Amino acid sequence: MAITTIGNIITGNIPVLTSYQVQDPVEKTAFFQAGILTPTPYAGEIARGPSNIANIPYWKSIDASIEPNYSNDVYEDIATPRNIETGDMMARVAYLNEGFGQADLTVELTSKNPLQSVAARLDNFWQRQAQRRLLATTLGIYNDNIGATDAFHVQNDMVVDVSATGGFDANAFIDAEQTMGDAAVEGGVIAMHSFVYGQLRKANLIDFIQDSEGTKRVAYYGQRRIVQDDEMTVIGTGAGRKFINVLFNGGAIGYGEGNPEHPTAFERQEARGNGGGVEVLWSRKTWLLHPLGYSFLSATITGNGTETTPRSASWQDLALATNWNRVMPRKHVPISFLVTGIPAP
User: Fold this and answer.
1) Residue 68 within a domain
2) Looking at CB atoms within 10 Å, which of 60, 287, 291, 293 has the fewest?
3) How many CB atoms lie within 10 A of CB 215?
C-alpha cells in the first residue's frame, strides 16, 4: 500500500502546498477587509528591511488655530513663513514561526492525504495570530491612555467607561466615537466580546448586511462593522465584569509583511516516534502591525519565554502601557474605547 505523507508532497515542491493557501492570510481577517488593518508602504519596507526596530517619520498637521497672513500693498511689510514640522514613530517588527508535526505511523494507519487540511489550518492559524497581535496592541494603547499623561496624552481622553451603570447603549457608543472630536466618522469597525454581542442581539440592535460576494451576512451596529472575539479584554468576574470594546476608524493600524528566507519548510526527523519517523512542516511570517500616532518603546521584550534572546514583542509585551507613547494629538489617532458592564436585570 502506497502512503502519501506531507514530505512526499512538499519535498522539492513547496509551491504545491502554497497553492492551497491564500497569498496573505491577513487579508482574510475582518479587520483587513474593513480597512482597519491597512497595507502601507512604510510598514512593508520596514518589515523587509535589515532591522527589527525603525523610526517612522511623518508630517505633523498644520495648526489651523493660528490666523493666516493678510495681504496688503505696503512694501515694507514682510511675511514670515511657518516651519514644516516632522515627527517620528518608533516601531518593532515581529518574526513569527510555527511548526506542525505528524508521525509516519499515524499517516500509515489513516491512509489520509493531509496536505489540504494542513494548508487550510495554516491560513486560519495566521489569520487569528494577526488578529491577536492587533488586539494586544490596542490593549496596550488602552492601558497607556488610562495611565500617565504626556505632551500629546490627556488621561482617559480615548476612553468612555459606563461599566458602573450598566451595559452597552447608544449614548455611550456616541460618546466613545466623539472622543475623536471632529475627526470622528461614521463607519469603521467595533470589536467586542461575544457577551456584548449577545446583549446587542437581545436588544435587536444589530443589522445584518449581505457581503459584496453574496455569500454571508455581516453584522453591523450603526455604520460600524462588528468583529466579535472572545479574546477581547474582560476585567473581573461575575456580575462585576467589565468589557473593553474598541472602535477603529479606517487606517488605524499600518501593516506590512516581510519576506522570510524560507517561509515554508519541511523537516524529516527519522529518530522520532522511536524510529518510526516524524515529519514537521514549518511556516514563517514577518509582520509589522503599527497603530497610527504611537511609538512602540520596546521597554520590555520577552517573546514567548522560550528563546534565549527575544527579538519580537509577545502579546503580553504589546499589552504593556510602558511600551507605548502617543506622539500625535488625540484627534489624529483613529481608535477609541468603550468600557461596558453587565446590564441591570
Assistant:
1) no
2) 60
3) 7
Q: How far is residue 115 CA from its own chain's centroid?
A: 28
Cell output for 260: 522570510
In the DSSP assignment, the letter for residue 114 is -
Number of domains in the chain: 1
Is residue 260 within 8 Å of 285, Cβ to Cβ? yes
Residue 92 C-alpha cell reads as 518593532
Question: Are 190 and 247 contacting, i.e. CB atoms less than 8 angstroms apart?
Answer: yes
| Dist CA 49 CA 255 (whole Å) | 14
Q: In this structure, what are the phi and psi dihedrals at residue 270, rounded to the nearest 5 degrees?
A: -65, -30
Q: What is the pLDDT of residues 64-111, one digit of tens each?
A: 778 888 888 888 888 888 777 767 788 999 999 888 776 666 665 555
Domain membership flag for residue 95? yes
Give the domain range for residue 298: 6-59+88-340
Q: Is residue 77 part of a domain?
A: no
- The owner of cell 489520509 is 112
By CB atoms closer than 10 A (0-12, 13-18, 19+), residue 58 is: middle
Convert the pLDDT of each residue in 122-144 to its tens digit: 878 888 898 889 999 999 999 99
CB atoms within 10 A of CB 50: 6
65 falls within a domain: no
Residue 221 phi, psi dihedral angles, 5° rounding: -115, 115
Residue 327 DSSP label: -
CA atoms of 319 and 278, how far apart (whole Å): 37
